[in-house]
Amino acid sequence: MRDIDSSDIARLTRRLILQAEFDIPEDVREALMRARSEETSAHAKFALDQIIENQEIAATERTPICQDTGMIVIFAEIGQDAHITGGNFEQAIQDGVRAAFADGYLRASVVDDPLFDRVNTRDNSPGVIHARIVPGEGVRLLVTPKGFGSENMSRVRMLTPSSGVDGVLDFIVDTAKLAGSNPCPPTIIGVGIGGTLEQCALIAKRMTARPLGKPNSDARYAALEAECLRRINSLNIGAAGFGGSCTALAVHIDHAPTHIAGLPVAVNMCCHAARHAEGML
Questions:
Q1: pLDDT at position 159, please?
Q2: Distance CA 10, CA 89 (A)
Q3: Pairing mode, strands 82-85 and 2-5
Q4: Which residues contact 246 (CB under 8 A, 6 or more apart)?
Q5: How many other C-beta atoms can be found within 10 angstroms of the C-beta atom of residue 206?
Q6: Which of 63, 165, 185, 231 has its CA 20 to 30 A from that of 15?
Q7: Residue 257 in contact with residue 193, Cβ under 8 Å?
Q8: pTM for this structure?
Q9: Who's near 52: CB < 8 A, 6+ residues apart?
Q10: Are 188 and 228 in contact (CB under 8 A)?
């Protein structure tokens, strides 16, 4: 058994949020640079130049990559032998969210009630927490600020088994086509297949933070990722919607067991910023 003070969880949350808001992960930056070197459309090259320059300014001046600083989503893995002391785990996460948005002068974008009283909470809390218990005595946090330009373009469909591979492929590509320039391409597209309604969506969101250039370990799913990416990049949407050969940087797919009568599929669109950061106590 290992004691972990809740104040350390709050500080880690704060640090990871600010890191995600200001610093693009290296794998994403490299993918954007490759896209820029391979792009043939002059307008798309210009858009990619602006995207890359914006990211450099954000990192240097410690200012948000995007004015939509997002709703904070946190995937937490809590070791079964970890003992949280000094306070409540979830409260510590929310304290970290509030501290990050105050100290980083980040835009508060969360409303307390989604339908009737859309009043801003003014501190961007609450963040969304997905926690699971794992072996060990540590706490690992993956922080993903989620802007809604791309979130609004995401979709879930409860397909039936008869839809097969072609039905899944068509749904993923159609989602990218319908999204157009709204999710700020080039995008990273997370896909969850199987499970239940909520599980496939969680898989899809987690997949937006999978390292680029790391295909699915199952060759069948890796081939599906590659075919999705090929078809999406043939749509000529391109960077910022200016046309060109790079509408998406990657399609990341993972799967889970599901019911004999179902084939749930979720597609979570993520903009070129692909903000995420991970740390452990």
A1: 97
A2: 9
A3: parallel
A4: 35, 38, 39, 44, 48, 185, 186, 233, 238, 239
A5: 20
A6: 185
A7: no
A8: 0.94
A9: 29, 32, 33, 36
A10: no
Three-class SS of residue 122? coil
Element (H, E) at 265: strand 263-270
Q: Which of 119, 192, 115, 178 is nearest to 150 (CA)?
A: 178
| DSSP helix, strand, coil percent of the chain (3-state; round to 5) | 40, 25, 35
Computed over every residue of the chain, the mean pLDDT equals 96
Span 41-80, pLDDT tens digits: 999 999 999 999 999 999 999 999 999 999 999 999 999 9
CA distance 134 to 146: 25
Among 188, 170, 243, 230, smallest CA distance to 32 is for: 188
Distance of CA 3 to the CA centre of its chain: 30
Asked whether the CA dihedral 97, 102, 108, 111 is positive or negative, the reply is positive
**H or E segment and range at residue 10:** helix 6-22
Contact 233, 44 (CB under 8 A): no
pLDDT of residue 208: 97
Q: Both tokens of residue 48? A: 């990619």
Q: Is 158 helix (H, G, I), strand (E, B) or coil?
A: strand
Distances in whole angstroms, Cα of residue 67 to Cα of each of 23, 149, 162: 14, 11, 43
Q: What is the per-residue pLDDT for 139?
A: 97
The whole-number pLDDT of residue 1 equals: 87
* 3 state SS of 259: coil
90 contacts: CB under 8 Å, gap ≥ 6: 129
3-state DSSP assignment of residue 258: strand
Indicate the length of the chain as a whole number: 281
200 backbone dihedrals φ, ψ, rounded to 5°: -65, -35
The answer to whether 83 and 4 have CB atoms below 8 angstroms apart is yes
Q: What is the DSSP string of 207-224?
A: HTTSPTT---SSHHHHHH
